[in-house]
Amino acid sequence: xTSSKAPILLWTNEVEPYREAMAQAGLLERVEVxxxxxxxxxxxxxxxxxxxxxxxxxxxxxxxxxxxxRWIQSLTGGVEAWLALPDLPEGVTLTCAxxxxxxxxxxxxxxxxxxxxxxxxxAALDQRERRWTRKISxxxxxxxxxxxxxxxxxxxxxxKATALEMRVIGARRTGGSVxxxxxxxxxxxxxxxxxxxxxxxxxxxxxxxxxxxxxxARLRRMKPSAYLLNFGRGELVVDQDLIDAVKxxxxxxxxxxxxxxxxxxxxxxxxxxxxxxxxPHIGGLHPERDRxxxxxxxxNLRRFLEGxxxxxxxxxxxxx
Length: 320
Fold this sequence. Notes:
The protein has 320 residues and is α/β, with parallel strands linked by helices. The protein folds into two domains: 6-100 and 287-306, NAD(P)-binding Rossmann-like Domain (Rossmann fold); 102-278, 3-Layer(aba) Sandwich (Rossmann fold). The protein is 30% helix and 16% strand. It has helices at residues 16-24, 44-49, 80-83, 102-117, 120-128, 152-163, 190-196, 216-220, 239-248, 289-306, and strands spanning 6-11, 31-36, 52-55, 71-74, 93-95, 144-148, 167-171, 183-185, 199-202, 227-230, 253-256, 276-278. The strands form two sheets. Strands 8-7-6-9-10-11-12 form a seven-stranded parallel β-sheet, with helices on both faces. Strands 2-1-3-4-5 form a five-stranded parallel β-sheet, with helices on one face. The radius of gyration is 22 Å and the shape is elongated. It starts with 5 loop residues before the first strand and ends in a 14-residue tail after the last helix.
């Protein structure tokens, strides 16, 4: 006897938050749940029946063996690894976890701004030496924060930075402003944001158009006193161009949370370049991250079972 329940695969190490969310939503009895650790390979018989999948990523050759697969829910906001698959089936809907990082990412970005302007690190180092050194901190109020890629996270950053009395401007593909932003620029006007910013925040996705976006020419358009903050994707920055710009005083420095290769190799010059702060990709981490993503997953699962449009669908042509 064939089951009427939709077979779904939870391909993640943290399964319980998703099971609990499905149970609370009354959906658990409507699906046939299979689970795998990220390190485990999917059995052929499971792939042959699977209709929906929650996963970080899949290796080449896996998805074509799932002929009934109709929906993939990515556990991350960035989907370049999925889109880079040479055999990602055309008929499969890919949804991402866009918007689930808005609280923790925003707080970490604000933390970076405070780190750059307040002498707490210097005071902590002085404390080791029992040394009393008074310093005057720079203010954020009155400074201009430029955001490149004003999506779900950028909107929250804009509102909270405005509450700190910062001037916020930004550029996005569709142009126009959002609440908390003084002015919004189109993608074609991005260089105006680059030139006007005291702190330039990168929240762009990695696409063919944005890879290598912050190169030597664009770094030269920044103020010598300005800082670059990259919480988007490592591929947005030309590493050597940034190192050269910081060393030459073209810009004041940078805080980087994302890198083209992660973990960042021990021999990479970012580690030892004064003025560049390396963060180990902490921007989106949250102690309850899976429970946050589970809320989106469950809403999409309900829609999937009812044949309705899914949330946070990825536009393959745009790359996000």
